[in-house]
Protein: Shikimate kinase
Organism: Eubacterium coprostanoligenes
Amino acid sequence: MDNIVLCGFMGSGKTVVGKELAKILGVKFVDTDELIEKEQGVAIKAIFAIHGEDYFRDLEYEVCKKIPEMKGVVVSTGGGAMTFERNVEAVKQGSKIVFLDASFDVICERIGDNTTRPLFQDREKAKKLYDERKEKYLSAADFVINGDMGARKTAMQIADIFR
């Protein structure tokens, strides 16, 4: 089985759906943000604050280059990961990318007033970022799934594609 790499905006359900999908398929779940935090020993928010976004994106790229070495896993990527061509090219080797296309309103409901998301502190800026990234997600994706559904239903739809 190819790796299944989930992409989408923050709050689109990549982690929750990814864990559910991995359980359904009986495979390992990997979260790129968790890998970065584990390697660096600090939270993503701290990496952004201390080193800036460019430094974080370089760390993210290094993790993306390791995904093809993993076999038959479900991977949740950070919200910006698949907006960079170098990351898309790195993961496409032995992986299929699934875009969880959640509406901005649903994302706002899910995130609420969550202050742990560095790029979601200002709703107007977040909406602009959402609009900018959507085209990039669509061009990176092998499959597009409605991300407004519950995690279980979304995971089942993705599982049906890969069975």
Notes: Residues 27 and 73 are 6 Å apart (CA to CA). The chain has one domain: 3-162.
